[in-house]
Please model this.
Amino acid sequence: MAVPRSLRRNNPITYILAGGLCIFFLYFFFGDSAQLPSLPKYGAPRQLLKSKDAASNELSPPSLPFKKTKLQEGEVAPPPPVVHYHMNNVTTTSDPVGNRESVLILTPLARFYEEYWDNLCRISYPHDLISLGFIIPKGRDGNLATLQLQERITKTQAPTNKNRFASITILRQDSEPPVAQTESERHALGAQKERRAAMSRARNSLLFTILGPTTSWVLWLDSDIIETPPSLIQDLASHDKAIIVPNCFQRYYNKDKEAMEVRPYDFNSWIDSPTAKGLGEKMGPDEILLEGYAEMATYRSLMAYMADTNGDPRREIDLDGVGGTALLVKAEVHRDGAMFPPFPFYHLIETEGFAKMAQRLGWRATGLPNYFVYHYDE
Amino acid sequence: MNRHGYGGGANGQAGNGAYPLSPTFVESRGRTFNIRPDKYEKYQPRNARNAFQRRRGLFMRLGGALAAMLLLLMFFFPSIRPTAIIPALSLGLFGVGEEWQIETVRYYDLANVGGTSRGWEREERILLCAPLRDAAPHLPMFFSHLRNLTYPHNLIDLAFLVGDSKDNTITLLSDLLAELQAHEDPKKAFGEISVIEKDFGQKVNQDVESRHGFAAQASRRKSMAQARNWLLSAALRPTHSWVYWRDVDVETAPFTILEDLMRHNKDVIVPNVWRPLPDWLGGEQPYDLNSWQESETALALADTLDEDAVIVEGYAEYATWRPHLAYLRDPYGDPDMEMEIDGVGGVSILAKAKVFRSGVHFPAFSFEKHAETEGFGKMAKRMQFSVVGLPHYTIWHLYEPSVDDIRHMEEMEQERKAREQEENARQDRMDKINSQFDTDGAGQWEKDKQALDEAQKAATAAADDEKAAAEADAIVVATDEASEVRHTESDNDGKAKIIDPLAEVPSLGGGAAQAPAEKPRDSISGMKSHDEKKDAAGQLVNKPNNAAVEKKEKVAAAQARAQERQQNKEAGEPSETAKRDQRHKVKEAANL
Model:
């Protein structure tokens, strides 16, 4: 019986010849097109970035994630695109979730508490609209805090986590903290001015380098705030105030009663008093008024003492000074220039000075005496 | 019927024979009889196998060859690799992709971005901020400045804030930026470019008059400050070591300005800003009066003012007596000379990013009675940053004529036209007279020439007697003067009188000089009034003296120039004068 003709042609030389020819043709086909003047790839690189988008270049606002660019050996990265930001469309409304408004949570971090991170992860605001920013001082304590923070971040920000945050930025401060931050030293009256000036600089560095053009709200949350309602952001934003501050308390173990109890912690949220104004007038330009010290009785009305644990959590009061432990600010207040003065501004410094500066710019601060967040108990 | 000896199956009992048969065999043989050969059960007919199965080997080899070829091609030509398809495919197949491509964590050490005097060597990034409003006419000039900057472009990030623009600023800006970024040399492309569009809803008019009116100043400065703060807070990154603020309407600046300012290694540094003026306004003028040193008077003034008041420099309403950077300029001075200042102007500010990071901004409220860039300087000082100006390092702001200037220019234009007309008329008349004169004069000239020749002949003939010759010379000289006098006296017909250039020149020169001399005086007083408007009134005591001296000098210079010009214009005439003088001389000689 005869072998089929088709099989007889199947000898390898045929394939090699055919392949060679093909490559030859294709070579000329593509080779020619390479000679043609091609249009520049970045003809009109106009981009419009919204708060949720990932930027296409590493040179982008830190409040946005970005796409990694993989470059071949010897390949030159294309120039960064021209990005347009329509800041008219950056809104701050009482319905931030519905309007997809992005929130930037800023934390000056001196010591890292696991409870802080756990609480942060429990926040019910959509995490893809939350960017986090940390500033950590130099030195050994700072290095330790950075390590602990990064450990938690790698777990939370794993690509497999559907609930990861939009972006996280860690800044290391350029200067050492001025004094050792033990609890007793930290609150000594003499050290206050210097400490709070350094703190103001840290806050400002954090704010003005990470704010970016897409942020709607800024939530200042201290690293020792370990318990907040999960709906903290929605609750505070629903008041639609420029600056709003909840009451900061502390849970502690009362040895006398042998039970857990709460006590006020943050005394920087207050309504001004004529006494304090009079004190301020008598002071030199570089002196500051401080709250919570017996040496300096200001007779201001402190929000900490207005709390009523069973009262309406939506009760609002107008404030003249605010504390920074938890503080929700509309980004436009900061953009107008309200910052944390590291110098005595109307005899006020840091967050209290911030409230004053915002006031000079036409923004008012509001307090929620019956809405609580809790501070770590050392 | 037993046909078989060993059979017996037929009659029932199987296995009766010597070789018993299995019952099944018996059954099957007993019931069916199949005649099909076994081989037909083993083999299918040829045509039952389809073509694909038959040539499977061939197809596989072909496919393999094609795949190998494609891989080879992709190896040689990376451009045909379907990079766009691969992630899409993997997304579909594995359900991962985007989130693996996205980086969410960034880490920065602010100690690395402190800013040093040699930033270009340490690859320090600069943020260049430019607030824009209705700036389309200046943009092409601004972009040419950008291209010319010698600081490595990839280290410069650009940020623009476009707000409340009624012209095509935004489209023009986008086009220019795309063009800038698509430069064929990748090293010429800039870093991050952000265009921020934000309308503040300001009603303030941006034209020169309303922009510099005193009443509008405070609110205008506050809204400018707001725009600057929005721009900065949106564009500043943890990677920036420096921030450079630059107005788009700077006309001339050194290409190396970033390096030049950086070399001083100051926290905030500004150059001197002047602007060129047309000649009739004095050629140049200090422009940016917001860079100054604080004075006792100003501090005392600030104490008397309301909390929300803003002291604006350059208006008579607030006499601050401050030393201004702008007035200290010496064109031949050392450009590296530094001067401590308290308020800064915003035309061109180089500041370390740490200044802005620590909170210094452009107060949109009255900070120590100042707003915007002056308040910025004050706040930087308050936070113990160094604020320095370079009095002899000058950049030039664009000259935009004010309404006064434009009116003045129109007047000048009209005057110029009138003068031209007048001159033309006079020229015509002179031409006419000339031609008339020449028609009589041509014949006379010939006669005169002949007479001259004759006289010369006579003179040479008489030359043997030296004494006589000397006498004759003396007479010629004497009569020369006399003839001139006689000439002006006797020629009392208008023609000759006008044509006499000796009489004409002084009167003309005087007249012509009068006009331009008036002009500079006007213009200087115009400039002075301008100065008054722009200067602090505190400068008035020093300034007018200077101005007066300058004025005198200028007037003198203008007069001299005018005379010179007039003389040049009439340069043709004197030759004729000489000619005619000679003629007279010859006549006298002939008479002798």
Notes: The mean pLDDT of chain B is 74. The CA atoms of residues 108 and 238 of chain B lie 7 Å apart.
